[in-house]
Structures are given as C-alpha cells and as structure tokens.
Amino acid sequence: MMCWAKQLGWAALAAFFAFILAGCGAGTGTLETEYVEGVVTLDGKPVAGATVTFQPVTAGQGMAATGVTDEQGKYTLTAVGAEGVEVEPGAGTLPGEYYVGVVKIEIEGELTQEEAEEKGIEFEESVPLPSEGKITYIVPQRYNSPRQSGIQVTVEKGENVIPIELTSR
Length: 169
Description:
By secondary structure, the protein is α+β, with helices and mostly antiparallel strands. It has a domain at 33-104 and 139-166: Sandwich (Immunoglobulin-like). It is built from 2 helices and 14 strands, in the order αββββββββββαββββ. The strands form 4 sheets. Strands 2, 3, 6, 13 and 14 form a 5-stranded mixed beta sheet that branches. Strand 2 (36-42) and strand 3 (45-46) form a beta hairpin. The protein is globular, with a radius of gyration of 23 Å. The relative contact order is 0.21.
C-alpha cells in the first residue's frame, strides 16, 4: 500500500511540474486581439509621425498598445508588454476601456557622437540624441499622458475604427 501511495505522489508531482512548465517562458503563446485603427487629427488636419498609446482604464483589464501615425495621420495598434506572448504588428489589443495619449515633438539640433561621449551618453547612429536645444510639442502636452489627456475610448470585439480628434486650444 505504501508503494502505491508513493507512486501516486510522484505522478502527481510530475503532473504538477509539467503543468507549471507549460505556462512558463520557453514557448510563445498567442493573444486574441481586436484590430484597431484610426486617424489622428489636430485642428482637423492629419498628424504624421505621432505616437499613439492606449492604456487600460482598469489595471489587468485590457492590454497597453501603441502605434505611430503615417503621412495621412493613420495609426494601427499593436499590443505591448505581454511577456511570452507573440503579437503580430498592427494586430490591435484586447477589448476594453482605454485612456489614450498622443505625442509628437520636434527637437532642435542633435548631439554629435563626440558631444554624446563627452556627456557619457552611449551613441547609436540610429537614435537621434537631443541637444540642449529647444523641444517643440507639435501635439499639445496635455494629450501626452494617456491618464491625463481626457480621451477615453472603448475597444470592442471585431474591427475598431477610432478617430482621435485633438485641438490646439
């Protein structure tokens, strides 16, 4: 009888570890996302090169997502921050309520490689480094933080077209 209980214990332990390992790191899962696109306008004109961020209103419900507008101001979202889950670019995000932030700035001047090294900044040619020059907010700063922008939207099951209309006043 003792031998049977011992075998059952080992079998249960092995099943438990198999269950735990199936949910951990090595493989990638998929995420059932909903497609989201829209056009960002400022005073009725499309905004090219803006970063759009969706942040869930309630933590744990939904998934943060981001996208960058094209020349016509159109964005498509891609969910971010899901460790071990693969999301196709432009696939969208989970259904739910979201705060929305939009950022677009222009930086006057960039650091050279020598200036960056003098300041102890790691230099990468693909990433422009701002100088101590002027930063111009193309999209007003009040829209930069999703939780403080005053913009809240709903992502529903299926395809979503969510225009984002901003004003400079």
